[in-house]
Specification:
Layout (H helix, E strand, L loop, with lengths): L9 E10 L2 E4 L16 E5 L2 E11 L2 E6 L9 E6 L1 H25 L3 E5 L5 E5 L6 H17 L3 E7 H5 L17 E7 L3 E4 L13 E9 L5 E8 L2
Antiparallel strand pairs: 1-2, 1-6, 2-5, 3-4, 3-6, 4-5, 7-8, 8-13, 9-10, 10-11, 12-13
Helix pairs in contact: 1-2
The structure holds zinc ion (ZN).
Zinc ion binds next to helix 1.
Amino acid sequence: MYMDDAYLREWTAKVLESVGEKVVLDRTAFYPRGGGQPSDTGKINEDGEEYNVLEVKKENGRIVHILDRTGPSRGEEVRCTLDWDRRYTLMRMHTAAHLLSALINKRTGAMITGNQLGTEKSRIDFSLEEYSPELLASIVKEANELISKGAEVKVYYLPREEALRIPGIVKLADKLPPNVSRLRIVEIEGIDTQADGGTHVKNIREIGNIVVLKTENKGKNNRRLYFGLEKA
Ligand SMILES: [Zn+2]
């Protein structure tokens, strides 16, 4: 459910499978680790019992929740709650990464070669002929100006063929799932359009202020930018 409503943080679900501390639910908004975004954490409650969700991952196309102990039985109704502070920070970080990637790509033509989001700091790697910390600083400045103006972030689906005609739709080279006919699109209005499976804020204003923590030069295909966020 995180795909269609990133702000959903509490819901009820039914346990479809339960093996040891692993459970699969009929509905979930827990984000499974992937695409550089770490998994959500939170709680599952059932009949007075509380379980901590330590990690969430995709296994054979199913979303598996890993609990701190043996989970509730199959068929049980449970109440799920996200650790919202963590998730919301990751949404802000993820949207900031899109904005920065778009500006890096626009200003230098660089491709993004990797990224890792975190709650304290996030990292973007990109390929670039000429490495310039000053250029990165000016890109972050531009990003912060756009954030203060605000822009809507829209999520929708497009047929694969149509989506692939959008310039720059895949900045993370070879990260597109090969066998899907409809692609989920995340668009920062007027700034960037990306095929993406992650969670984002509704308006870039929610990102707050981006701060450069560190830049690193690990070779032509591996310029790195570490950034953090100050509260909006
Ligand atoms: Zn993304």
